[in-house]
Amino acid sequence: MSESIEVAYWPGCVSRGFTPELHGSMAFTAEKLGIGLVELDRANCCGAGVIAEHNQELADTLNARTFALAQQTGLAMMNICSTCQGAQSECQQRLDADSSYRAHINEVLSGQGLAYEKGKDGFTNKNFLWLLVEDYGLDRLAEKVVRPLSGLRVGPFYGCYIVRPKERLGYDEFPERDLYLEKVIEVLGGEVVEYDGARKCCGFPVITMNRETSLRQAGTHVGDAIDAGADCLVTPCPLCHLNLDMQQPEAAKIVNRDLGLAVMHLPQLVGLALGAEPKQLGMSKHIASTKWVEERLAAVPV
Amino acid sequence: MADYTLKVRRYQPESGEGPYWEEFKVDLDPSLSVLDGLLQAKDRDDGSLSVRCSCRAAICGSCGMKINGQSGLGCKTQIGEAHEQANRRNGGSEPIVVEPMGNMPVIKDLITDMESTHWDKIRRVTPWLLPHGDPPEREYVVDPESMIDITQSMACIQCGACVSSCLSMEADPEFIGPAALAKAYRFVGDPRDAETKERLHDLAHDPHGIYDCTHCFSCIDACPKGVAPMDQIMRLRRKAGEEGIEDPNSGHHHEMAFVKIIEKKGTLDEVALPRESFAFGVKGKLKPSKRAIKEVLGALPTIFRTIRSGKVRAKWIAPHHKLPDGAQDEVKDVYRHAEEHREEFNLYIKGEEGDEEAAVEEGLEPPQSREEAVK
What we know:
The complex is a heterodimer of chains A (about 300) and B (about 375). Chain A is of the alpha/beta class and about 300 residues long. Helix content of chain A is about 50%, strand content about 10%. In chain A, helix 1 links the parallel strand 1 (about 5-10) and strand 2 (about 35-40). In chain B, the strands form two sheets. Chain B has a five-stranded mixed beta sheet. In chain B, strands 6-7 form a two-stranded antiparallel ribbon. In chain B, helix 12 crosses helix 13 and helix 12 (about 250-265) crosses helix 15. The interface between A and B is large, with 77 and 84 residues.
């Protein structure tokens, strides 16, 4: 394993919109870990599955453009959003399947001095969670922990796009990708909370079309995690964060119970264990209070 | 041969008791199926253990069940793999957990009542051909090419595994669901059907129709036949959009608002998305619908909370992220090219190994075609 890791970094849209604390905490955590982030500032939205539903070729070309920009840096790509991971992997699967389709897509990119190449070993695009476990390594992460999250009971929440479909998301090669959050929580010194919703849907994709179905899903999972004794949830997906955190008070009304559970972005949870102060990680920007998490951590001296 | 433990969720309505768990020790080759294991337990330990099955070869679709929480067919899941799956986190000797399918009432043990949650919904989408005009004297003649598009949805064996796994249906039991909507696409995409637009209009207008799918991919992983019901639902949405069908669920408006925002700004402006999804007509000629007004009012508490927390700041303080010099024009070029061609690359038909040129380039064996693979 190489000592330093540098990646072509796609922050996504939401981390620069409704969850600015994700973008900030990723920058902080990457620096602490020694991961170099070369930001793809010319890249575009992944389409989140919505653009593919409108016009599949459009989604494929938009993502081919982002991949081509990453390839220009000569680095593997990293994202910090389960939805980006899923939507981009879906397009990549089609692009990689057929050279004539790829050539068709590259027609328009060539005018921009870009081309998406499948290459011999294939193009690599990994969510921060995958990169952390597969490339950075859990042993190395363990060495960096200065404030173990002792006693903190954390419920993992993956986001659909990073766990299904397994065949598309590299589970043949990495069959434990849907256990990585548990592994990371344990390495950071926290305690894994098992509950029903960890790999279920937050409901966000239908918040506009069917608010009740959407918030029933979010509220149920948050409630289940509370019942299982969680102090907080952790997610690698900012869209899940929107439904689980931003909409949590509304979801509470739909499921007709008190909620009030902090929802952490993955880089925030890692950042805490690396010694960051909650404020440095933007935890005050959450809707569901993170006070309880802070108190739990303060109770165990560093 | 190896020993396995099956932990089965049992239920006998006539007993008056609730469901309970029972463990069975079975002894069989790891390459045999979970269904084989259940039948051995039934044969050796308890003849009352009930499971529906027939062909044992993933053709009849009778033995839908949940194995370690994953919906699928008992006959298509190898017991050795199921054992590994059950033990991949803790290692050791965790039992294989077998449950009846989800989202359905249980009749007895692993047998579910598929009537209300599967067959009623299948009937709901008018699962037969609606041609116009007089029938031809002999058979309908169709160009084989024109039928390729629906072969994937025709592969369905009605096992209900997708329904069992559906996370939208879990939250909204009225959702038409993955099996029925995949069946709907089978007729929407059929060149002989003459009521495509009416079908799409119906499914788009239903609040529990095509826009109620939460895009969770569960049905794709559950389906033992590669139907990918969610992909068929996305095709229905695409076709509905192409037909210009505007639905009261804001599904089409949401899609178009998203598409237009990225064309204009390159990245998603989440403040603009709900505004333009709900109140598409505010700046134009149309008035916002009653539903749009209700939704926007319903969103006000969330909006206030996001402002109070500092999540969202006024545009003049923190404008939306803009792509740097010229990049937005590149995105617009991508739009022009893709909207002109609108190609749909279907992996089910083309196959992932369809890339013969690349395979040759990379020195790999030329792969089998799909037809050969089927043989």
